[in-house]
Design a protein that fits this description.
430 residues; HDH_CS; alpha/beta; 3 domains; Dihydrodipicolinate Reductase, domain 2; 11-stranded mixed beta sheet; 37% helix; Rossmann fold; elongated
Length: 430
């Protein structure tokens, strides 16, 4: 085989990174594979714009997706355009045409994984998606292959760099949410519309993919409970620190005899936890298997070259498989159908910050509400006093979410409770 030809769908940040990495490592890739890897066509939305910007590549660009999807000489289609439509249609058509597909598209994989895997298996082509979670961190193939001899107890990760950057700034400098969001947008870490990041949706899509692989059962985006960081304040971060903890936006996937729990939300973890030291835009994923024990994977979770690194790794894998007539050998690992636990049935610890009237009997009435709802209190600390009001921080023992929600609902209706300022879940020992 003289060369394996590739078609790129998209030439944004990641697409350009893939082109650059393939070219800068051309000799190494050839020596590894014994064949050339050649980008034959690149689908773009505005042909004139890209031909003017990159005149040396003008013959590669096309606005017609058929020139990539239907070209019999193109053996691998790399989708880096993002979004679900029309990317999903292009990818399915490419596989139906016998082409292996590589994608960095977490939205598409998290929401349409069943259809994508079914098509890849029917056609006997590769469908690889390492770059869809945590950028350059090699977690997908690690879970599917290197750690396949394990049953996983949990997968917990910082899998959104934007929110980790924001929480790091809030923690280090006491800056308010609005200020650090503006800074993140100015630096290009946050989009003009930051909803997907700050509300936890981006992390939820990634967690759906990780949980599906770890627990061998299909988990989709809609199965994941998502809560963002918009209600986190510098005072909550300060109080968490006083308790010996750090607030991180975590994706948490666990399994027990009742099913799988998958949730994304701000979480207080002990300062001694490996994830507590992961700051700025970095990602990290902590996994625990029954055979291997605890492991942590750390690195850049986004960006031109980290994501391109993962894509090119998948390209090399796909080319090897084509060269050895062995495509489609790693199929979907979701061969079980396990229930996903509703958020009300998960058990964890809770930090609750309340503003109450500062007078005798109030603390006792608050404690009684918690006790009546089956919530065991680990500690109650009175913090600031403002005129006739007092701020309380309650830490609970492990309890089901529905009991906390019931207690909070009752507390909100009490005349002596002026505000439930925040409720944050906590993991670990403090």
């Amino acid at each position: 085989m003289a060369a394996v030809k590739i078609g790129l769908l998209g030439f944004g940040t990641v697409g350009r990174g893939v082109y650059k990495v393939l070219n800068s490592h051309r000799e190494k890739i050839y020596n590894t594979l014994g064949v050339e890897v050649e980008i034959a066509k690149v689908l773009v939305r505005n042909l004139e714009k890209y031909q003017k910007t990159y005149p040396e590549l003008s013959n590669l660009f096309t606005e017609n997706p058929r020139e990539v999807i239907d070209d019999p000489e193109i053996k691998i289609v790399v989708e880096v355009m993002g979004g679900i439509k029309p990317a999903l249609d292009y990818v399915l058509q490419a596989m139906q045409n016998g082409k292996s597909v590589i994608t960095a598209n977490k939205d598409m994989v998290a929401e349409h994984g069943r259809e994508l895997f079914a098509t890849h298996e029917e056609q006997g082509v590769d469908f690889l998606f390492e770059a869809s979670v945590a950028g350059g961190i090699p977690i997908i193939r690690t879970l599917k292959e290197s750690l396949a001899g394990n049953n996983f107890k949990e997968v917990i990760g910082i899998i959104n760099g934007t929110t980790n950057y924001m929480l790091t700034k809030m923690s280090l400098y006491g800056a308010p949410y609005e200020e650090v969001l503006k800074e993140a947008q100015e630096k290009g870490y946050a989009e003009a519309d930051p909803t997907s990041d700050v509300e936890g949706f981006d992390a939820a899509r990634k967690l759906a993919i990780l949980a599906s692989i770890a627990f061998n059962s299909r988990v989709t985006f809609k199965d994941v409970y998502a809560e963002g960081i918009t209600r986190i304040t510098p005072i909550d971060i300060q109080y968490a620190r006083e308790l010996g903890g750090v607030i991180k936006l975590l994706g948490i996937a666990k399994e027990d005899e009742e099913g799988i729990e998958v949730r994304v939300h701000p979480t207080i973890i002990p300062q001694s936890h490996p994830l507590a030291a992961v700051n700025d835009v970095f990602n990290a994923i902590f996994v625990e298997g029954d055979a291997v024990g605890p492991l942590m994977f750390y690195g850049r979770g986004a960006g031109e070259f980290p994501t391109a690194s993962a894509v090119v790794g998948d390209i090399i894998e796909a080319v090897k498989n084509i060269s050895h007539h062995d495509t489609g050998r790693i199929g979907c690992t979701c061969y079980l159908e396990k229930p996903v636990k509703p958020i009300g049935e998960i058990s964890t610890k809770y930090y609750i910050r309340l503003v109450v009237e500062d007078k005798p009997g109030v603390l006792a009435s608050v404690a009684q509400v918690f006790g009546n709802q089956g919530v065991s209190i680990a500690s109650v600390i009175q913090k600031r006093s403002i005129e006739d009001l007092a701020e309380l921080v309650v830490m609970t023992h492990r309890v089901k979410e529905r009991h906390i929600r019931d207690a909070v609902s009752i507390l909100k209706g009490m005349s002596t409770v002026r505000e439930i300022a925040n409720v944050i879940r906590a993991e670990g020992d403090f």
